[in-house]
Queue: 3 jobs
Job 1
Amino acid sequence: MLNMAKNIKLLVSPGCSRCEKTKRILDKNKQKYTIVDITKEPKLLTKYLMVIPGIMIDGRLEFSGVVPDEKALLKKLGKQHLGGR
């Protein structure tokens, strides 16, 4: 049995097209998440600048630097693919 993720954070920065694509994947699959703009906090900017978009699942960075493969992301989240484009 897969556990449902408790806390999803999407690490983004303004103007990041990969971040927007990643948001669309999460939205399409009705996944709740928190957007974290790393440019608003110097510590986050230094630590995560090269990993955006980044997806943290329950405090662990699971995807970084690329738009994640939708099926792989949903598997990590314990969800089934909803299909469509």
Job 2
Amino acid sequence: MSSEGGGNKGINCNRETATGCWEQFTLKSTSGKFIDEVNERVKKKKTNLITVYPNPTANSLKFNGINHSESYTVTIFNLLGSSVLSQITKITSIDVSNLGAGNYIIKIIDLMGEEYTDTFIKK
């Protein structure tokens, strides 16, 4: 993590994510509660890696790394970028049997707004 000045609006910071990308955020408070929330979010990002399987699939996609007590928004897109299936779920799989054969993109978003995106093949 790195930071630079920001005056009374907070400190501009950068941190490396679990996937090796860098993200920017502004540290607006030095209260213990806020710091704990930021640390928990970073910790969650590094440990909550979602995997989607089997790939290719005929009937359903399963998710590994999902917290069963949280709701997730799961959206599937065709390769033209159109949403073909979207639902909010707490379950660890999604039925894709009604999709036509082809390549798709799946996006999973948790309650904190963290996104996981992958591709899969529907047989």
Job 3
Amino acid sequence: MKMKNHMRRILAGAGALFLSGMYAATLISAFAEEAHYENLLTASIYATIVVPVLLWAYTLVRRLVGKDKTEKKENDDGTELTD
């Protein structure tokens, strides 16, 4: 359980850092009056939607795949098997 929360925090931090960097690059480009700042703004808005969805999908798949590994094996009488 501890590892799942740790991985989730790392992914959330990485996503937040990535999005902050995208918006900082857009802001700097806008103030520098570079021609491609509109493309950066579009990419930042797109990333604001896509990055959290991808992180959510990753954690969902990890949870579903991990559930099979963590299920405990039981005997016919309902007692837990030991390895």
